[in-house]
Specification:
single chain; 168 residues; mainly beta; Glycoprotein, Type 4 Pilin; OB fold (Dihydrolipoamide Acetyltransferase, E2P); 2 domains; four-stranded antiparallel β-sheet; 16 strands
């Protein structure tokens, strides 16, 4: 998967490929071969050439906001942007009275549906959980309404940009 990472005014091109517990990453063309584990939710261990780095990640409250990342005594806000998601999308909050789609930013696996089709939700309520790179991400309702349908089921693998649910 490819995406852009913004840290302050800096922009980085990132590509990640997984093979079991091994992660092959390229950041601005520089390659890394890592072993990655998640001993507990939001805590990641990256092993690179024998050196282990512990990283604490707090996912954003809303899609499009920055991740809070802490490592080595530093705290960073990292905004991840999926170029595929940018194509054909309007301005994220312009749902008005129409339907709103919940899409995934990264490929992964649907772990859990938090509500049923037909349920009433408020803006920001959790709707489903997708696991990507061993990190579980709760996808939230972009607006208040009724969950019209799920286009996925638990255990299904999804690609970046796939529509997972529709809220009216």
């Amino acid at each position: 998967m490819r995406f852009h990472a913004e840290i302050g005014d800096e922009k980085h091109e990132v590509e990640i490929r997984r093979d079991a517990d091994d992660v092959f990453a390229s950041i601005n063309g520089r390659g890394y071969e890592l072993e990655v584990s998640e001993p507990e939710h939001g805590v990641y261990l990256f092993k690179d050439k024998g050196k282990i780095t512990e990283v604490f990640v707090t996912p954003p409250d809303r899609p499009g906001e920055a991740l809070q990342v802490q490592t080595g005594g530093r705290s960073l806000q990292i905004k991840l942007i999926d170029p595929k998601r940018l194509r054909g999308s309007g301005g994220g909050s312009e749902h008005g009275d129409g339907a709103a789609e919940i899409r995934t930013a990264m490929p992964g696996k649907v772990v859990r549906l938090l509500v049923e089709a037909g349920a009433s939700v408020e803006k920001g309520d959790g709707v489903l959980v997708v696991e990507a790179m061993k990190m579980q991400n709760e996808l939230k309702a972009p607006k208040a309404g009724i969950v019209k349908e799920f286009k996925v089921a638990e255990g299904l693998t999804v690609a970046a940009g796939d529509v997972l649910a529709v809220i009216e």
